[in-house]
Design brief:
By secondary structure, the chain is of the alpha/beta class. It folds into two domains: 28-121 and 166-307, Aminopeptidase; 126-163, no CATH class. It is 40% helix and 23% strand. The protein is built from seven helices and eight strands, in the order αβαβαββββαβαβαα. The protein has helices at residues 2-23, 53-71, 93-106, 209-239, 255-258, 275-282, 284-307; strands at 32-37, 76-79, 111-118, 126-142, 149-164, 170-175, 244-250, 264-271. α2 (53-71) links the parallel β1 and β2 (76-79). α2 (53-71) packs across α7, α4 (209-239) packs across α7 (284-307) and α6 packs across α7. The structure holds zinc ion (ZN). Zinc ion (ZN) is lined by residues 38-39, 45, 53, 116, 196, 198.
Length: 308
């Protein structure tokens, strides 16, 4: 009898919790989403065979904004730029990054999403590389006069090979928090084989006590949500068959994430240095698929926030 009562009591609890979840006034947890198309204006970003990163990131971001607006009509979308300029019409990349963060913080965003495209350090498309394919004998003469003698030497034979730039795939970055004490951290710590990851190794704009406070705040309040959304984005990419490199965190080169006082992620949507992926990233079909992936992750992210 006691057991039956306990079961009834337990199911009653879960039923009530369910009802509560269903009928309570849901707080809008994503009032404002800040969308940041990487690069712009004098900063083209990485270069493919036929396109520049700044144009691809803008096209994807504008489509993403429209899709979010449709799915979450109550959410305000703030763009750091909507045309081919550096945010705030900045005249340097560094100033542009500062403006990106300023726009995000002034609009009191609940989420910051930066859109980028990746590239390897090798030339876009592919490149020729000389390789030794064998050796041939060559007769040389050494010494002078009476000491002069014949010598057979091996000379390498070179041939040029076309090396296709095959690296493809998406990566989502979060800004590195000091998680030295945390176990079970699923985030990949390796450095990516890429030359993009934003651009700035310059420091200065975000240093000082204010920046330090923001960094602590990020670690306490925003790191977990950033990592959650980044994981969901990578999962959605994988679901549509994209190659993914998973979630990575960096403490350098993504100043814009460090400087935003909200959960923030930077999505490297794919490699412009691979001919096929560059076509995909430039195509309407590819851009729509990427937008669907990110939107799918956002829906799951919002759900996670709601049930917390
Ligand atoms: Zn970039």
């Amino acid at each position: 009898m006691g057991l039956i009562m306990a079961v009834i009591a337990l199911s009653g609890v879960s039923f009530n919790t369910h009802l509560f979840r269903h009928f309570r006034q849901k707080p809008l947890l994503l009032h404002t989403i800040v969308l940041d198309p990487g690069h712009g204006g004098l900063d083209p970003g990485t270069l493919g065979l036929m396109s520049r990163e700044k144009n691809v990131t803008l096209a994807i971001t504008l489509k993403l904004g429209a899709a979010i607006k449709k799915e979450f009509p109550g959410t305000k979308i703030v763009y750091t730029r909507t045309t081919d300029i550096l945010p705030g019409n900045a005249s340097t990349t560094k100033e542009g990054i500062y403006n990106r963060a300023q726009i995000a913080n002034e609009s009191k965003g609940d989420l910051f999403i930066s859109i980028h495209c990746n590239a390897t350090v090798k030339p876009p498309g592919g490149y020729y590389e000389k390789r030794i394919t064998g050796y041939r004998k060559r007769t040389e003469y050494v010494g002078k006069g009476k000491l002069k003698r014949k010598k057979i030497v091996d000379v390498p034979v070179y041939k040029s090979f076309w090396i296709k730039n095959t690296t493809i795939g998406a990566t989502t970055f979060v800004w590195k928090a000091d998680r030295s004490g945390t176990k079970g951290d699923a985030i990949d710590q390796r450095e990516a084989d890429s030359k993009d990851v934003e651009d700035s190794t310059e420091v200065g704009a975000f240093e000082g006590p204010e920046a330090r406070i923001r960094a602590e705040l990020y670690e306490k309040k925003y790191f977990n949500n950033s990592a959650l959304l980044a994981t969901l984005v990578e999962e959605q990419f994988a679901k549509t068959g994209r190659k993914t490199w998973g979630v990575r965190q960096r403490g350098v080169g993504i100043k814009v994430l460090e400087a935003t006082a909200m959960p923030s992620i930077l999505i490297e949507t794919g490699y412009l240095s691979n001919k096929e992926e560059e076509r995909y990233l430039n195509s309407d079909r590819g851009q729509r698929e990427i937008v669907r992936n990110i939107l799918g992750a956002l829906k799951r992210y919002r759900h996670e926030l709601e049930v917390k």
